[in-house]
Structures are given as structure tokens and as C-alpha cells.
Design brief:
Blueprint lengths: L1 H17 L14 E7 L2 E2 L4 E6 L9 E4 L5 E3 L1 E2 L2 E2 L4 E8 L16 H15 L22 E4 L4 E8 L5
Parallel strand pairs: 1-10
Antiparallel strand pairs: 1-2, 1-5, 3-4, 3-8, 6-7, 8-9
Protein name: Ig-like domain-containing protein
Organism: Paludisphaera mucosa
């Protein structure tokens, strides 16, 4: 009888452990990361901003957003508002950007498109952009000058002013 009780208790423990929902990443404590993205002092609308977690971040919560008409963004990690505190390299893809040599599919989410562009850039190297006829340094994780340390309390007044002349 004791054996059967142990099996039942063990079975219930396994079922309870497996029914937790989304897993460990759903339990990460996220803090707000919000701000404004400008190009030469003017709001940059429709740009994808990505916060790429540094290797030391635990947990590594890469995330981002697409800027609004006034250049504002509110970073998200897996459809949850905020990021985990830590160090991030920041990449930015210009509005209406497309994979090198191919037009952007009209129904693809702009933030997901920026992730696809990151992957393509790693394979093909620098690319020219439609809005500025030069390699867009901000879209390359190895060259971007942008980085930020997200504080434990979050950051809601960030301003990143990109320069069109930066190569």
C-alpha cells in the first residue's frame, strides 16, 4: 500500500511540474525599458530597435520594439513588456528595410523582419540601406556604437540619437 501511495504522490508531483505553462522564461522578472529613437535629432518612425543581451546577462532576454510616429519605443521580451536588468548591445534597422536584394513581405511583423535582417547581415556583411546610401552601422551587432546597461528599476527616459553621417 505504501508503494502505491508513493507512486500516486510522485505522479501528482510530475503532473504539477509539467503543467506550469510557459516554462522558466515566463518567470523572469522584467523591468520597463522605454525611450525615443531619433536620427539627426528628428524622431525616427517605424524603425526596429533590438536589445541584444550580452553573454553575461542572466537571464538573456533579447527584445525590442518598432518605433512609433514620434520615435518612441517600449521594449518587449517574448510579447511581455520589459527586459531583464543587464548589459545590451543595441541594433537598429531603418524603416521599410528589406533583406539584401529582396523586398520585405508585406505581412511580416517589422520587429521579426529586423531579426531576419540581423541573421542575413551576419552571413553577407554590410549592406546599403534605402534611406541612407551607406552601410548602416547601427544594424550590425559587431559595429553598432549603441549599448545600454538596463538598471534593476528599469529605464523609461532613454534617448538614442543616431547620426546619418556615422559610417
Amino acid at each position: 500500500m505504501r508503494f502505491y501511495k508513493a507512486v500516486v504522490v510522485l505522479g501528482l508531483a510530475i503532473v504539477a511540474g509539467c503543467s506550469g505553462g510557459g516554462g522558466e522564461e515566463d518567470s523572469y522578472s522584467l523591468v520597463p525599458v522605454e525611450g525615443k529613437l531619433t536620427l539627426d535629432g528628428k524622431p525616427l518612425e517605424g524603425a526596429s530597435i533590438t536589445f541584444n543581451a550580452s553573454q553575461g546577462n542572466n537571464p538573456p532576454t533579447d527584445g525590442g520594439d518598432v518605433t512609433g510616429a514620434d520615435g518612441t519605443f517600449s521594449a518587449k521580451y517574448r510579447n511581455r513588456s520589459g527586459l531583464a536588468p543587464g548589459t545590451y548591445k543595441i541594433t537598429v534597422h531603418q524603416p521599410k528595410a528589406a533583406l539584401p536584394g529582396k523586398p520585405a513581405p508585406p505581412d511580416l511583423d517589422p520587429f521579426m523582419m529586423s531579426l531576419a535582417i540581423d541573421a542575413a547581415n551576419k552571413k553577407k556583411g554590410p549592406r546599403k540601406t534605402a534611406a541612407i546610401d551607406q552601410p548602416w552601422i547601427y544594424s550590425e551587432i559587431d559595429r553598432t556604437p549603441l549599448s545600454h546597461q538596463v538598471s534593476v528599476g528599469g529605464d523609461v527616459d532613454l534617448v538614442f540619437d543616431l547620426k546619418s553621417t556615422l559610417k
